[in-house]
Amino acid sequence: MSNKIYPVDAAYAAQTRITRAQYEALYAESVADPEGFWSRIAQRLDWIRPFTQVKDVSFAVEDFRIRWFADGALNVSANCLDRHLASRGDKTAIVFEGDDPADSRRITYRELHAEVCRAANLLRNLGIGKGDRVAIYLPMIPEAAVAMLACARIGAVHSVVFGGFSPDSLAGRIADSQCKLVITADEGLRGGKKVPLKANVDEALTRPGTTSVETVLVVRRTGAPIAMQTPRDRWWAALVAEQAAECAPEAVNAEDPLFILYTSGSTGKPKGVLHTSGGYLTYVSYTHECVFDLREDDVYWCTADVGWVTGHSYVVYGPLANGATTLMFEGVPNWPDISRFWQVVDKHQVTIFYTAPTAIRALMREGEEPVRRTSRQSIRLLGTVGEPINPEAWEWYHRVVGDGRCPIVDTWWQTETGGALITPLPGAIDAKPGSATLPFFGVKPAIVDTNGAVQEGACEGNLILTDSWPGQMRTVYGDHERFIDTYFRTYPGAYFTGDGARRDADGYYWITGRVDDVINVSGHRIGTAEVESALVAHPKVAEAAVVGCPHDLKGQGIYAYVTLKAGENGSEELRKELVQWVRKEIGPIASPDYLQWAPGLPKTRSGKIMRRILRKIAENATDQLGDTSTLADPGVVQNLVEQRLIRA
Ligand code: 6R9
What we know:
By secondary structure, the chain is α/β, with parallel strands linked by helices. Helices cover 31% and strands 22% of the residues. Helix 2 (20-32) packs across helix 3 (34-41) and helix 6 (109-125) packs across helix 7. Bound molecules: ligand 6R9. GO terms for molecular function: acetate-CoA ligase activity. Mg(2+) binds at residues 536, 538, 541. CoA binds at residues 190-193, 310, 334, 522, 583.
């Protein structure tokens, strides 16, 4: 833990919207009177039917509800588009920077509005209505935002699936929410490499449970020849062009769903995190304005893919609800060369830059020169999200990327939380490298010990939230019991984040990482159970246990212990085959970094795998194995320790 403090810059503080004193006053108000506070903040949106109810929440499992602004109605797309037309019609809404540096364009609010209206009319003509689910499996191109907003315009529920997921992962998500339509592209393009998106969709739709899909709309991205199945598959551009550029926005109840986004948990299949309309948009637009201290002429760039929650909240919905200029980048940080991020910053005069620690660490490894050779003078604020940032990476980001003159906001949040919950406000809160600092307005974090006792003052334990905020997820799609069981039973009356945290004497929070069976690989959540079930699906595998291990670039890596069926041999060839297998089953982000053959796994007498021991072996902390006497066969540990793959 670094104890260095980076105070708010005096010049910054002099022109900020929220000073430290204002933060304290607003925070106090927000927790003392959440109804008054959030009813005022929600006025930043246009409501078709104004709400009279504000907060209706109970975290008690026997009387559970989370409802915000429940009798109000609005349209999310109208809030992101129509209301900006009078004052910002010619302002750039989206700057698109393609994978190829020669490929970029700007889309004004007026153009985006027209395109979204056409797409919404198309969806309606294809029989999509309020509440219907639409899967979006697209690269980082403007059509992804258009598709999301078109769904929102007609009250359809989108489910964006990251383009890096396999056909099986896509199929599972389509089947779980019974999507009627899929929007995809012929191919994706990242770092000069092609991703066969349409072919993946074709394969996914051969899987059981996917017959709900009636239509596949295909965006032409690379122009590669692809198979089109009639009448199922239709070209997006031709159909969109035929539609009227006006489309009356549907009045949507505040608590009607806006989207489902699948995320990994500690058990079972990925769960469909469901967010609703009024509270979500209020929360993401307000946090986006405060956390990034947004100004009218900012050019804001969040590098996240729309396949993740950060792309939903802080590439599309937050920025567009605020009438900001948001940059969508199709490519990767190191292509065509390692200066790409900073070339894009200079090219589009980006003022706010928001990325993940894993990207910072990868760039840091290449040294300062690739950064220094660019100007970056336009940047005034930096942000990070996705995983704890190590203080060295924070300092490098500050000193090299920001030339020591830009504040950094380290924003802690989750798919489930909708928007940032623990985060500095750049003109109000002094930074400490590695700390997400203090709670946002209305957010009540607490730290509990393993018995659930709330700790006071400086302490360490599990992070819970004792009250709701408008951006909170409302349910797991199709499985409300799982929602309650996962988040509200461990610590009664509170939302359990799954994260550990420390609070220091200044009240600052330091997130220490997941305390459940979720691995955070390069800021992406992977459930150990998912990787295990992919491994045991292989005909030669008898059993598998997967844990996280330290990884210099990714934050955490995936460490798999595999027991083969009798008669099988743990060859180098089979090891490679299993890694490829997982890649194919789930997607490249889930490929194990280490795969160790395990003649046996450490189990309790009741047959439960002792992951604590496997984690320690994977961390090379073999002196901290703790008590192994309760194991059914303590001998297996010795073999695993001897054969461990990390020894440095
Ligand atoms: C937004 C997003 C959520 C998990 C979360 C935590 C980790 C995210 C962090 C952070 C430390 C930060 N996490 N931001 N840890 N500092 N600033 O990443 O959502 O993909 O659902 O991941 O990521 O462990 O629980 P999601």
